Amino acid sequence: MKNTKLIMTVAAAALMLGTTASFAADYSFGVVDMNVVMQKSAAAQSIMKQLDDKKESYRKQIDSKEKELRTSEEKIMKEKAKLSKEDFEKKRNAFKEDVIKGHKLVQKDKLILDRAFNISMTELRKNITKVIADIAKDKDFSAVLTQNSVMMSKPELDITAEVVKKLDDEVKTIKVDWDAASKVQEAK
Predict the structure, then answer these.
(1) Confidence of residue 79 (pLDDT cuts 50, 70, 90)
(2) Which residues contact 92 (CB under 8 A, 6 or more apart)?
(3) Do the Cβ atoms of 30 and 159 come closer than 8 Å?
(4) CA–CA separation, 146 vs 135, rounded Å?
(5) Which CATH number fits domain 2-187: 3.30.465.60, 3.40.190.10, 3.30.910.20, 3.90.1150.10?
(6) Contact, 153 vs 31, CB < 8 A?
(7) How many Å apart are CA 14 and CA 19, to the nearest integer?
(8) Rounded to two decimals, what is the model's pTM?
């Protein structure tokens, strides 16, 4: 009885292994590291440069506004002794409103940057998907998997460098759509 069970188990395993080997021979796969593509491609780098430039522009505006607010605050404090209590409160309240406006501007700028990043990355992913589909078709792959979903694979299955090269050939830059990012913000 024990031998029969052992023979049945071995036979089932042999059948499964035979089917698995046959299955694997009928399909071919590619593996792509999306993090590398999203960082090293020319299009991704162009997006990041545009975002960094805009961040720097916003930072300069914020620095200027902060300097203006400090000067205004110092002026109000110097005039405090010369002003009536009512006039001082009016100036102080106006200053507080300016500070609140400054905070709102910073929040708006951050939301625009976030939205611009998301819009641009979506466009980049569409282009990457097209490139991967073209490579998969050319190589007759049954599927292309992301590196994150693969525990280990043969190095020759990795098509990351090919994806970056083809993407760079086809899409050198992706223009960040600041208008679209701003319109979404205005709608809120």
Answers:
(1) confident
(2) 76
(3) yes
(4) 14
(5) 3.30.910.20
(6) yes
(7) 9
(8) 0.75
